[in-house]
Amino acid sequence: MAEHDKLLPDWMIGLTDRIMKYYIDRELNVEPIILDRHPAPQEGHQYMMYAHIPFCHTLCSYCTFHRFIFKEYKAREYFVSLRKEMQMARDMGYDFTSMYIGGGTTTILEDELIKTIELARKLFPSMKEVSCETDPAHLATESFKHLKGLVDRMSVGVQSFDDNILKMIDRYEKFGSGEQIFERIQAAQELFPIMNVDMIFGFRGQTEEILQRDVDLLMKLNPRQITTYPLMVTTQTKASVRNTIAAPSADLAAQYRIILDTLGKNYNQLTSWTFGRSHDEGFDEYVVDHDEYLGLGSGAFSFLGDSLYVNTFSLRRYNERISQGKMGVERRKRFDKHSVLQYRLLLGLFAARLSRKYFRDVHGVDLDKALFKEMLGLKLAGAIKENPSNPDNLIVTDAGKFLGLVMMKAFYSGMDNVRAELRKPLSSIDM
To answer: Which residues partner with 228 through β-bridges?
Structure first.
């Protein structure tokens, strides 16, 4: 692809990465705290609940989320603790408009997951949607069908339909060929109102032709929703695979253009990397639509008020705290107002929903004055432009969507590095 055809020049991508690294290293340092519970809910605020299930049968080499090798007795003990923590949140006065269950493999014990969702729907009457994740292997099990009617949105991690890529990232033996995965998704789509398919681009050897074939297969599959993540390699990614799965000089902009040109013409774009059949459906990046959320379970993050809270990454300490009537929270990072505004600006760009009215109504600031340097930079980069028909809602250009992708990729990589640091001290008795 010629330089003038790129969404952003290479120097701007590199500069963005360096700027994001500076801010992430400065801001994402969570300190130990002594708290029995998270802070209580504030009147008039809306909250989402995130629940983490940190177990997998096998650990994918590129995955940077908090997870452990599955042992049934530990997983069952954990689900009991998770439900107790959920009850604590209700006793504090929390109610939630939606629930997101992430992992790990959330469907690793479907009977425990069903109990957990049923309790959540009973405890929190305002809950309108439950989102959940799974892998291609669970789609084929008979017990998986029991989640019908309980889960509104099921997200399945595919990454690629290309068999060579699946073999390179150790998923072919675990989950089957691209053709088998395609057929399983096709059969399971009818179970849930929304089926989301997670794909990844930026793998070594993933040519534009291979990516185009993946995208064309998605069009044939025709799921309600598609998420196309850029590969994120962090300090937590196994050293043995860092240089073998990621393209050394992948032209993400060229690959992203394929995604925009194909998916963008057939779907509504919900974020820089999520596409859906309608504009009003939930998606994996729940932080976009929920300013505040409470995380339950080991390794879960919460954002409440002006603070990020992190639950213990130790399974042992998590169960001990719950048995003592405490919640899992062990660390906190408080942000000043300017940092919160920068964070919301990033999310607005990423979601292509950058609203001056939102900043006035929710944060009480004039966006152009409060974040003058940031807004000037976005305008000079061609990431945003004025909307003549509605000055309150800025237009995020294709270059802006790609910039949002690059920035969120850096932000999530920074969060993964936080996870890596907090997992380092864990010993065998903590797992």
So the answer is: 199
Residue pLDDT, tens place only, 265-290: 899 999 999 999 886 666 667 788 88
Identity of residue 237: T
H/E stretch holding 121 = helix 110-123
Please, are residues 352 and 383 in contact by the beta-carbon 8 Å criterion?
no
Q: Flag whether the pTM goes above 0.85.
A: yes
Give 338-351 pLDDT, tens digit per residue.
999 999 999 999 99
> What are the beta bridge partners of residue 230?
201
At residue 54, what are phi and psi to the nearest 5 degrees? -95, 50
Task: Tell me which amino acid residue 9 is.
Answer: P
Long-range CB pairs of 138-141, under 8 A, 24+ apart, other chains included:
138/105, 138/107, 138/108, 138/110, 139/184, 139/185, 139/187, 139/188, 140/184, 141/110
pLDDT at 4 over 50: no
**Please, are residues 270 and 351 in contact by the beta-carbon 8 Å criterion?**
yes
Separation CA 79–CA 51 (nearest Å): 10
Cα dist. 20→96, 120, 175, 407 in Å? Answer: 31, 36, 35, 7
